[in-house]
Amino acid sequence: MATLLYRLGRGSMRRRRLVAAIWLVVLVALGLAAATLRGPTASNFSMPGTESQRAIDLLAEQFPAAAGATGTIAVKAPNPGQLGTPEGQAVVQKVTQEATAVPGVLGAVDPFQVGAVSPDGQYALIQVQFSGGVDTVTDEQRDAYEKVGAEAQSQGWQVAPGGEVLNAEPEVGSTEAIGVAVALVVLIITFGSLVAAGMTMLNALIGVGVGMAGLFALSSVVELTSTAPILALMLGLAVGIDYSLFITSRYRQNLLDGLPADEAVGRAVGTAGSAVVFAGATVVIALAGLAVVNIPFLTVMGLAAAGTVTVAVLVAITLQPALLGFAGGRVLPRRLRSTVAVTTEDSSGSASTDHAAPEAATLTGEDRSAFGFRWARLITRFRIPVILVGVLGLGLLALPAPDMRLALPDAGTAPAGTPARVSNDLITEGFGPGFTGRLAVVVAGDDAQATTAAIPQVTNLVQGTENVLAVAPPQLSPDGKTALLGVIPKTGPTDPATETMVHDIRAAVADVPGADVLLTGVTAVGIDISEKLSDAMPIYLGLVVGLSILLLMLVFRSLLVPVKAALGFLLTVAATFGLTVAVFQQGHLADLVGLDTPGPLISFLPILLIGILFGLAMDYEVFLVSRMREDFVHGDTAQQATINGMGHGARVVTAAALIMTSVFGGFVFLDDPVIKSMGFALAVGVAIDAFVVRMTIVPAVMSLLDKAAWWLPRWLDRGLPNVDIEGEKLRATLDNKATV
């Protein structure tokens, strides 16, 4: 692989104008396709095979009028008892008429007809039924719905439209640019060159642009959840910068070693590029592996992010060498460009010359007094205390993890002041938390008579279930074969008692004769999804850990190194889960991340975090340990090889981790709590894995294992293919050519 990438890197530099033109054409073409073909994103989460989804599908088929999106308008009179007066009733009826007139609304229910009025006569709930699903509601319809009751509000009433119809796509604004700005600063400090930093950032941004444009172009034929593009952007930007950083750093090192520019870029792509391809492949495999969980929206999210990572890899090993050819020696700090010629050629044979200093090799990491070497010597000297402190420290951070609760987001955790949150708080204030998480029981018989006969029994069974506050009168489909009963729990949507109640209702109505009885609703859907994801998480974690051991065994030709890497990954995941639970669920230091209301974590966050962190953890493992193996194979002792690997890789890995943490951390400033928690968990996970696990615990363990770290049975060594990720064969080939 290294030889192939070596040729690709040299070819891309020599034909840099053609390569740059091709990527520019691809970017423009996909941008135009995205602008013309972009489809809507979905804000709902479907889960085939669950009872709640079967009920939704049944309603869509037999009772479509009840299968559309719903809204709830909370109304609060200025004074208690005012809804009992003719004037108060007239105000509420006027608001009901306004809601009925909203485009796309089938009808709004007068709260006085169904008893949706609080006992103190100050609060009322208006149920609104839309004709289409949540994803079919247009921005114009949503705006009209949010303006309902404006006249009543001018008279001192509170009118708060809410419900699932307000679920909207999270917006990506200027806040995440903070992460990009921090990343650029880190690049400038790392390289000491504006040209190198700007070129690396430009390369990453082009990759993100191509990946996101391609994703949006496909959105017309593939249903994307609203969080899928955000995740793809987050990952594509982070790995794009990191991968370009690794190749640029190796290119600079090769220049300072006195290699011609085309040879320097060829070897950079052949060695660092090999690690980039492998690291990118692990991320892609982990994300694509989400498909084994068999959850459609999660599969789409994984594949969307995997697509942007794939583009980032392709851009790094093709466009990056081309941009390096344009930059020449300007990737070095200005003071180092004056004494050695750096000649670059293109396919036409024309050449340009820059200058770099041969004596500047100390900047490549060869200075044994550099921080990376000092840190490695300190770690290896006190390896046992370091291991104990590191493992115990991460164990303490992981303590909150067993208390993790999962749920789909509800309006109760929406940012304060948003329409959905205002409506939710008003409903809770006037009626209690159960009214914000209504459930629906679907009763479907073979004919109208069977359904009618089953309704009283179902109603009695549901009313007799613990924690049920009320059961609404049934709504019948036009043919009378399907009925819908509203169920109001005493507790909120994410309360554990509500989850228990859902299971109790399903058990109670399972054997009703003559009809199929199914429980659904947004709350039930969230419970079903959370349970299925929780059941799938151990399977997926085992798959990822097993995969990491196999891949690293292939790369490092060792048994203990892969096991050590997998155990380190488990420490990272546990500590990350613990910190995320402590902040977003338990509320510790929530103000620092701008979180208004703590609550359960989004259902898919843990399994998604496992997949992403696995790939990113393998990035740093490969970049650090591959240099250790390289030096050990070339004759250094195991101890010295460990020190050399850290000494050479610490600066670049530190910069890469800071960049990735900054990019992910930029998403913490978004208002959407789901995106906020994803950005926080990824930023914390990368920081823990890079600085605590890979750069502290890993060298300590490698020092403790000594030569045993590189042991592999001969029969297994013969059976494993040699991927040559360190470019050992490439260097041997090039050295042989040089001596001929």
TrEMBL record:
Family under the similarity heading: Belongs to the resistance-nodulation-cell division (RND) (TC 2.A.6) family. MmpL subfamily.
Domain of life: Bacteria
Protein name (database record): Membrane protein
Organism expressing this protein natively: Micromonospora gifhornensis
Keywords (A to Z) from UniProt: Cell membrane, Membrane, Transmembrane, Transmembrane helix
Membrane topology: Multi-pass membrane protein
Upper classification of the organism: Bacteria, Bacillati, Actinomycetota, Actinomycetes, Micromonosporales
SSD domain sequence ranges: 194-326
Localisation: Cell membrane
SUPFAM superfamilies: Multidrug efflux transporter AcrB transmembrane domain
Membrane-spanning intervals of the chain: 177-197, 204-222, 228-247, 268-297, 303-327, 382-401, 539-560, 567-589, 601-620, 652-670, 682-705
